[in-house]
Amino acid sequence: MSQAITAGDRIDDVPGMGLRRSGLILVGLVLVALVGLFAGARYGMLLLVGLGFGIALEGLRFGFAGPWRAMITRREPSGVLAQLLSIALVSIVAIPLLASNPGELVGAQAPIGFAMVGGAFVFGICMQIVLGCGSGTLVNAGSGNPVSLLALPFFALGSFAGAYHLIWWTDLGSLPVLTLQGTGGLVATLALLAVAAAIILWRAAPGVPRLNRRHAIAAVVIAALALGNLVIAGQPWGVVYGLGLWAAKAYSAMGGDLAASAFWSAPGSAERLSSSILTDYTSLTDIGIIAGAFGVAAWRRGALAAALPGYPARAWIATIIAGFLLGYSSRLAFGCNVGAFFSGISTGSLHGWVWFVAAFAGAFFGIRLRPLLGLEARS
Amino acid sequence: MTRAFTASLALVFVAGLIGFDLANARPNPYKAPPAFALGSGAVPTGGFCGALPN
After folding, report:
1. Among A103, A114, A216, A295, which residue's CB has the most CB atoms within a 10 Å radius?
2. Binary contact (A294, B10; C-beta < 8 A)
């Protein structure tokens, strides 16, 4: 994620820029209309929500891995506080909605277990190695980051493999699904978020901005889009399932047999494998995020003209391994920073809180590993 | 080489994915669910990263 769109961007500064920007808007709207027309209105709207996520995340430089790194290395709290604010805003609407519409809406609720905690810890390491989480990898790939572009297909493969083995891992030991529901659940969620924010503020360096305006705007926009996702799809914003589905479809098309996997051979999975990805909710928002981030990069003057950074061979190998582990671990953890942390906490799942703690602990290791693996750009 | 190349590759990846998928499975708008899940009366059935198969 690079520079933010500024009010000072004058479209008449560069010949053809106005035409290019008009074209970007037109192409985006046509794609949404085509999906709505040929797949269904719900699917078109979810693509639009995904485009919104991509535009907001890239345009406002909002993410998850970067703010965690800023908090850990420089003790800058703004990005993490914005994440907590966004989660709080979603929970204020989502938890009551889930309680009053249990037959139409579901939360991102999953069990806490050994594999879940370990998966979140590994995810936290890897998201700092490649400096991209679930949504961040999509955004960065769309805006031309070569590390994320390479990590993406291996992320998908890892997600597929993690789901393939998911039952074996969960059989190692899991609690029942624990949730904070209704008014009491909402109050408890907001109280826990306030405690988390207080800890972040306590650890923040003196003199640095607590919550800057750009992050605050991003928190509100992302919250609105996440609620749109819930109301339209009936389920919260997620990333990882769609990536695994893409790899599963490719595996199946190449003659691979998924019957041995309890996950991929289950009736729901089988139905989605035989259906178009244009009818899969997380696939649509994932595609929208990539396209939206590309749109912002193309919108900005000079963003796509930036030279690619140089990395040693070990950095590319580390990216492939970390990309695969991002996908694999996020399936064991029942989600990434989006599906488990953001959507889990905001819909009252306690696994989201455990994910947050485990992944944040892993981030400390990932930050130390990144330069050793050659992933600090040389030029 | 610039980011224009890698960003374009990302778009090619997405376009290729959709093209490959459309060759194997076509959506049917006449079987599409209501536009909004909220108020539809239908049970959500989408895949999600937090869901177990059973």
Report:
1. A295
2. yes
